[in-house]
Amino acid sequence: MANFVLQVPNSLGSFTVSASASSNGSPPLSSSGSSGGGGGPVILELPVDKIRRPLMRTRANDPVKVQELMDSISEIGLQVPIDVLEVDGVYYGFSGCHRYEAHQRLGLPTIRCKIRRGTKETLRHHLR
């Protein structure tokens, strides 16, 4: 696993970050490229409480599926990262609802995320 410096907004406080190359071979997030597209998605561990879930209350998660994921995550860890959109230093999750809830219920402080950067217009599109 590589060590590198990641610049994050002060509002996130301090936390440990680990990264790996994504399955598409895109490079890890660099400290110099803080805005704009470039590079594709990056896999990072983010604090669960720093991911906003704007659509979380639109439907209830299947409790059986959440329990199955909790059992699996406890035994072998999260196998598929959740997709997260980063806009102006704020992280938004629109998918991976069951995996996110499983992490919350297990009391895990972080969750593996596939992060892609977007604009406010991209965020508005997801909120429609």
Structural description of this entry:
Strands 1-2-6-4-5-3 form a 6-stranded mixed sheet. It has 3 helices and 6 strands; from the N terminus they run βββαββαβα. By secondary structure, the protein is α/β, with parallel strands linked by helices. The N terminus is likely disordered. Strand 4 and strand 5 form a beta hairpin.
Strand share of the residues?
15-25%
Please state the overall shape, judged from the principal axes of the Cα atoms: globular
Order of helices and strands: EEEHEEHEH
**Distance between the ends:** 38 Å
Which percent bin holds the helix content?
25-40%
Parts with pLDDT < 50 across at least 5 consecutive residues = 1-5, 20-36
Rounded radius of gyration (Å): 15 Å
- Major beta sheet, strand line-up: 1-2-6-4-5-3
Average residue pLDDT:
79
Helix/strand/pairing category: alpha/beta
Number of strands: 6
